[in-house]
Amino acid sequence: MRKKIVAGNWKMNKDFNEGVSLFSEVINMVNDEIIGNQQVVVCAPFIHLNSLFGLKKGYDKVSVGAQNSHQEESGAYTGEISAVMLKSINVEYVILGHSERRQYFGEDNALLAKKTDIALKHGLKPIFCIGETLSERESGEYFNIVKSQLAEGTFHLSPDEFSKLVIAYEPVWAIGTGVTASSAQAQEIHAFIRKEIAAKYGQSVADETTILYGGSCNPKNADELFSQADIDGGLIGGASLKSRDFVDIAKAFN
Ligand code: PEP
After folding, report:
1. Which residues bind substrate (predicted)?
2. Pocket lining: 65 vs ligand 1, CB cutoff 6 Å
3. For residue 98, which atom of ligand 1 is closest to its CA?
4. Exposure b/e, 148-186, CB count within 10 A at least 16 = b
5. Distance CA 135, CA 74 (A)
6. CA nearest 114: which of 93, 130, 104, 128?
7. What's the pLDDT tens digit per position in 71-117?
8. Which residues contact 142 (CB under 8 A, 6 or more apart)?
9. Residue nearest atom 4 in ligand 1 by C-alpha distance
């Protein structure tokens, strides 16, 4: 049975004290209210990561993730953070290829393939994001776009390496816009992604791959999205900044 995951992406939000409050609330609510075996992941800005482990109280239904890591292990890359550094404080997950990194920082599939290699080499679990823009959706090109992001970013991996990834399908037109993909639209492309994985790595790897949906997911639409056969949870932006909303989304699996 593949893992169900609800991951929050705080993006560039929350100062230190705000982050402590938000994470503490999430921990307490998850502890009291999550009865299924879904995993809750909090991907916070770098400044928070080390302190979150102290607040976790050893509670393992919540994992800590970063939002980016560099493609080299160390060196003269001012302002960057490496997978080695993240691993040294026990960070478990790292978001790679978020559309905001692709759009504002010029990250392309070739660079993301390198980031994925280094993250895996150091024991991080990448949450690898793919998804089309509005014009790519409207032109009908979205299957090809998603396929090439997936193949160019990850299909150089061995089956064993690939099986450590979480894939997040995030249509760019749905991120932060309040416009959610319908459950049918999301299921259609999730099934397509799983089929592509099966064609490359075989059905059993595909069946075990967790594929998250991201894009204006909220407590009202999570139930329907997460009940689709190929949607194994969500990558949550805006709603992860409110503990009640975030944990209510995670409870869609209860
Ligand atoms: C995201 O940035 O990954 C995301 C899904 O954002 P939002 O939930 O705000 O659309």
Report:
1. 9-11, 176, 216, 237-238
2. no
3. 3
4. ebbeebbbebeeeebeebbbbbbbbbbbeeeebbebeeb
5. 38
6. 128
7. 999 999 999 999 999 999 999 999 999 999 999 999 999 999 999 99
8. 132, 136, 171, 189
9. 237
Residue type, 15: D
Q: From residue 180, how far is each of 194, 215, 240 by CA, in Å?
A: 21, 6, 16
pLDDT < 70: residue spans in the chain: none
- The response to whether residue 222 sits with its C-beta less than 6 Å from ligand 1 reads no
171 lines ligand 1 (CB under 6 A): no
Domains identified in the chain and CATH numbers: 5-253 (3.20.20.70)
Interface pTM, i.e. ipTM: 0.97
- State the DSSP H helix or E strand holding residue 125, giving kind and residue range, or none if neither: strand 125-130
153 CA to middle of ligand 1, Å? 21
195: annotated binding-site residue?
no
Do the beta carbons of residue 71 and residue 114 sit within 8 Å?
yes
